[in-house]
Amino acid sequence: MDTEAGADSDASQEPTLTVDQLAARAGVTVRTVRFYSTRGLLPPPVIGPRRVGRYGREHLSRLALIEELQHQGMTLAAIERYLEQLPADLSAHDLAIHRALVATWAPDSAEDATRAELERRAGRVLSGEDVDRLAAMGVLAHADSPGHYRLDPGLLRLGVELLDVPIAHETILAARTVLLEHTRSAAHELSRLFRDENPYKESEPDPQRVAAMKSLSAHMQPMVVQALVTAFQRSLKEELRAAFTDG
């Protein structure tokens, strides 16, 4: 997606959330929001009528990024340094992509959630169709017990935002299939390239070779993910520009 278009979309969304609503949507306390604000981790709210602060999508996305960085084990001081390095004008869309990149460094994990917990974390009431769409996007899966789900917390916020995009359920399934097929193919080819490079001698004991390859993988993964996302964004931008120009 064109980040400029994302920024324009974010700009059109006036901040409408009170601090209580922001905290509920983000799954944190009001005290936490205010603490982050005093530390400079969150931009100040827009002051509306009767001096009531209003928050928007950028604040939600930044809170989600902070939550993900904490999930990675970073201290508050480290998070402050991390956020200081980001451009000051990042849109909510850019922050969501940045969080997705951070989340890819963590091991895959799923959490059990009831319907009530799912809606609390989503920040909205979910219809049966909403749940089906989230399942189609791979955000959740139905558990054995009725009303219980296996939830991917890293995808939840993005999936909830996509619920408001007018895309047919069948299109979501088709898009997910395309992404899975092509990313698996890219991962296979990259793995083959790294394996063929094989800088570690066959004479080395197996445990040493395995440890060395794991170390290489840990260092390469963030760079490969960043390269893939950047290349995909540019390719998609060109395809969309060509499609709308032809139209």
Overview of this structure, please?
By secondary structure, the chain is mainly α. It folds into 3 domains: 3-103, Orthogonal Bundle (Multidrug-efflux Transporter Regulator, Chain: A, Domain 2); 111-162; 198-246, no CATH class. It has helices at 3-11, 19-26, 30-38, 57-71, 76-84, 92-103, 115-122, 128-136, 153-162, 169-197, 206-246; strands at residues 46-47, 53-54, 111-114, 140-142, 148-151. β1 (46-47) and β2 (53-54) form a beta hairpin. The chain is globular and about 65 Å long.
Q: What structural category arises from helix and sheet content?
A: mainly alpha
Question: Helix count?
Answer: 11
Strand content: 5-15%
CATH topology of the largest domain: Multidrug-efflux Transporter Regulator, Chain: A, Domain 2
| General form | globular
Mean of all residue-level pLDDT scores = 77
CATH class of the largest domain: Mainly Alpha
Strand order of the largest sheet: 3-5-4
Low-confidence stretches: 1-12
Number of folding domains?
Answer: 3
How far apart the termini lie comes to 18 Å
Helix content: 55-70%
Task: Give the beta-strand count.
Answer: 5
CATH architecture of the largest domain: Orthogonal Bundle
Query: Would you list the SSEs in sequence order as H and E?
Result: HHHEEHHHEHHEEHHH
Give me the oligomer status: single chain
